[in-house]
Every structure is written in structure tokens, then in C-alpha cells.
């Protein structure tokens, strides 16, 4: 059985709308005008147990809304979902005891009391037996290096320290499904890396399935072989990250190293690369070429120059994703 099944999920928010000024304010008391915001439209996918899936989309794409529905915080306008055999928004206790939603921008621990006391509250809420609680605190504390932090009040922690404690606190009940919404946002590179390797390790040890949103492609590249992309609330792509790059990357970069001290004549080089802009380095150059042209240009460079090394690179994931979003914005905005 799949861990998560989502079918034709829709969420439409009704947002009060009024113009500025006193007259509009008085009018709004009598007759409220509302506007519909289609945050999620006809989204469907399945995720298998143990999978780590990147859930990508630009700001306002509908990622958080989807995760809130799947974690039972929001009712959908229509559509169905099943997570570990439960309908999330029915908020069955047995379901809540098997999943965790971790939001990088939200504080879930109590601000004024020590971290460990907050953990004790979670222990009571989830009815975690004392021996399990102690063993999990010890394990999570070791994996995330929390020893020094557990007795400090949350308000005295740095952002990165707080995030580590938030994550550990959300995992005390050993959830089998994790929804991670921007878990590394605002953290420095070292802390991002630590959280990333922790998520990978948690997935490996427990077999939990993970849905992760992040604007940092390093998170996605390190953790997710599969990505689901949404834009304007609609599903745009669901498949291997490699496939996304393959399908949407328009250009590749050819990096060339030349045999020592070869004088490179700009006119000759220009002809070999069909006049494309070339970036020179001390020992060679690189040039961006449309994907379909790459074999032909590479063959020409190999035949026409004393090449000591030639490497063809895919573009960075960031730029591929940008291209995907841009292309869709044009389609959607342009009608
Ligand atoms: N409570 C709400 N009431 C009305 N509209 C909302 C509400 N929450 C979200 N929206 C709107 O729904 C759309 C999707 O928002 P959502 O937060 O799900 O996007 P997101 O992909 O998580 O974006 P981000 O990357 O910026 O967090 C946006 O247009 C947003 O303004």
C-alpha cells in the first residue's frame, strides 16, 4: 500500500475583499465581498513508504497549503487523500501519532521553558512511554548534537539551534511520515548540511517517508531522487530529478581544456562555436550550447583544436527550475 495517495485535491480560500476608504469600510459591515484564491487545483500523486520526495514550486505555488491538508490542519475544498490509510483532515489520533509537520518558519516549542520541558509536554500529548521517550531523546540528541541545548529556554537559542530542537521535538513520537516545510530556511550552510544529513539518516534508520519543500536546491539534490513540482496550484512535473533536468534544461555547457600554450585565435574559435559567447580561462574556455547542438559542437571542437580534456555539463538545478517556472508563468499569464 502507498504511504500517501492524493487524488484531485483542491483548496480554494475565500479572501475578504474591499477597497480603501471610509465608505468601503462601512459598506463592508453590511455586505462582505469575497474573492476566491485557488491555492491548490486538481493535484494528484502517490508516494511509497520510505521515499523522500522534494515538493517544489515558487512562492505562493500551493506547497504549504498541500502539506497542511496532508497533515490534517486544513480541509480541502474537494478531492481525496489517504496517508498511512487515514484521511488526514479527520484528525484521527492514530494518524496524528504517526506523522509530523515541521515548518521552518513556525515555532512549535514553548518559548519560555527549557527545551526538555517542551519535550515532556510532547511526551504527554503523544502518550510516549517513559523508556521510549528517554531512548529517543538520547538518540536524537546524539544525531543532532543537542546535549548542551536541552536545558536552555527556547528563547535563548540561536535560529539554527532552535531548528535542531524543533526537529527533534517533532520526532519524539517516531512518526512514519514527515512533512518538512522549509526546514533549513535562514540557516547557515553548515547547519543546513547538518539538518540534511540528519533527515537522510532518519529516513535510513526508520524507513519513514518524507515530503520536503525547500528553496535550497542543495537540500533537494542531497535528499530527493524524485521531485513533484507545482506552480499556480497545479501539478507541473512528477518524476526523477534527473528527468526534470533532462526534460527542461535548454542548454548544456561544454568545458574545454587545451594542450599547453596553444594560441587560441578568436576568429577560429568563433567559427567552431557558431559565434556563441565564450568564457575564457587560463587553460581553456567554456561555452553554452543548446542541448541538441552539443554533440555536433563538441565533435567540431575536438577535431579543430588540440583538446586535452572536454566535459559536457548539465546546468545547475537552480537554473533549470527557474526555466520551468518562467515557461509556465508565460503560459499561465499569457492565457
Ligand atoms: N489562509 C489563507 N487565506 C487566503 N489565502 C491564502 C491562505 N494561505 C495561503 N493563501 C494563498 O494561497 C496561495 C498558495 O499559498 P501557499 O502558502 O500554499 O504557497 P507556498 O507554495 O507554500 O508558498 P511559499 O513558498 O511562499 O511558502 C497563495 O496565493 C497564498 O497567498
Put simply, the count of helices is 12
CATH architectural category of the largest domain = 3-Layer(aba) Sandwich
CATH homologous superfamily designation of the largest domain: P-loop containing nucleotide triphosphate hydrolases
The run of helices and strands is EHEEHEHEHHHEHEHEEHEHEEHEH
Number of domains: 2
Shape: globular
Q: What integer is the average pLDDT?
A: 90
Q: Low-confidence parts, pLDDT < 50 over ≥5 residues?
A: none
**Beta-strand content bin:** 25-35%
The unique ligands bound to this protein are: adenosine-5'-triphosphate
Please give the radius of gyration in angstroms: 25 Å
C-alpha end-to-end distance: 39 Å
Give the neighbour order of strands across the main sheet.
5-6-7-3-8-9
Summed up, what is this model?
The chain is α/β, with parallel strands linked by helices and 335 residues long.
What features would you describe in this structure?
With 335 residues, the protein is of the alpha/beta class. It has 2 domains: 4-246, 3-Layer(aba) Sandwich (Rossmann fold), CATH 3.40.50.300; 251-313, ACT domain (Alpha-Beta Plaits, 2-Layer Sandwich), CATH 3.30.70.260. It has 12 helices and 13 strands. It has helices at 22-30, 63-70, 93-96, 115-125, 130-144, 159-170, 189-206, 217-223, 241-248, 266-272, 294-304, 317-333, and strands spanning 4-17, 33-47, 52-56, 78-83, 99-103, 177-181, 209-213, 226-231, 234-240, 251-258, 278-280, 284-290, 307-313. It has a 6-stranded mixed sheet, with helices on both faces. α5 runs antiparallel to α6. The protein starts with a strand and ends with a helix. Bound molecules: adenosine-5'-triphosphate. Adenosine-5'-triphosphate binds at residues 13, 15, 37, 39, 57, 59-65. Adenosine-5'-triphosphate (ATP) binds at residues 13, 15, 37, 39, 57, 59-65. InterPro entries: AAA+_ATPase (IPR003593), ABC_transporter-like_ATP-bd (IPR003439), ABC_transporter_ATP-binding (IPR050763), P-loop_NTPase (IPR027417). GO terms for molecular function: ATP binding; ATP hydrolysis activity.
Amino acid at each position: 500500500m502507498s504511504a500517501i495517495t492524493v487524488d484531485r485535491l483542491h483548496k480554494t480560500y475565500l479572501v475578504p475583499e474591499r477597497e480603501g476608504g471610509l465608505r468601503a469600510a462601512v459598506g463592508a459591515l453590511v455586505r462582505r465581498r469575497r474573492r476566491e484564491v485557488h491555492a491548490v487545483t486538481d493535484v494528484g500523486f502517490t508516494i511509497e513508504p520510505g521515499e523522500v520526495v522534494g515538493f517544489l514550486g515558487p512562492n505562493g505555488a500551493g506547497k504549504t497549503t498541500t502539506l497542511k491538508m496532508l497533515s490534517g490542519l486544513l480541509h480541502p475544498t474537494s478531492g481525496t487523500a489517504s496517508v498511512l490509510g487515514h484521511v488526514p483532515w479527520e484528525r484521527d489520533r492514530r494518524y496524528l501519532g504517526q506523522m509530523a509537520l515541521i515548518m521552518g518558519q513556525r515555532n512549535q516549542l514553548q518559548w519560555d521553558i527549557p527545551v526538555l520541558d517542551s519535550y515532556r509536554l510532547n511526551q504527554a500529548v503523544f502518550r510516549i512511554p517513559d523508556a521510549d521517550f528517554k531512548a529517543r531523546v538520547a538518540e536524537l540528541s546524539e544525531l543532532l548534537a543537542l546535549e548542551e541545548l536541552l536545558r536552555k529556554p527556547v528563547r535563548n537559542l540561536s535560529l539554527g539551534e532552535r531548528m535542531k530542537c524543533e526537529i527533534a521535538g517533532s520526532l519524539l513520537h517516531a512518526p512514519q511520515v514527515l512533512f518538512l516545510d522549509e526546514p533549513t530556511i535562514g540557516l547557515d550552510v553548515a547547519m543546513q548540511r547538518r539538518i540534511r544529513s540528519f533527515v537522510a539518516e532518519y529516513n535510513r534508520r526508520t524507513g519513514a517517508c518524507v515530503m520536503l519543500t525547500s528553496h535550497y536546491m542543495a537540500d533537494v539534490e542531497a535528499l530527493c531522487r524524485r521531485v513533484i513540482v507545482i506552480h499556480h496550484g497545479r501539478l507541473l512535473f512528477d518524476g526523477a530529478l534527473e528527468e526534470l533536468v533532462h526534460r527542461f534544461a535548454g542548454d548544456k555547457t561544454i568545458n574545454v581544456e587545451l594542450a599547453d600554450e596553444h594560441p587560441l585565435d578568436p576568429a577560429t574559435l568563433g567559427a567552431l562555436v557558431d559565434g556563441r559567447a565564450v568564457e575564457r580561462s587560463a587553460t581553456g574556455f567554456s561555452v553554452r550550447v543548446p542541448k541538441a547542438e552539443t554533440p555536433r559542437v563538441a565533435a567540431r571542437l575536438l577535431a579543430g583544436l588540440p583538446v586535452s580534456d572536454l566535459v559536457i555539463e548539465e546546468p545547475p538545478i537552480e537554473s533549470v527550475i527557474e526555466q520551468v517556472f518562467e515557461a509556465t508563468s508565460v503560459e499561465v499569464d499569457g492565457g
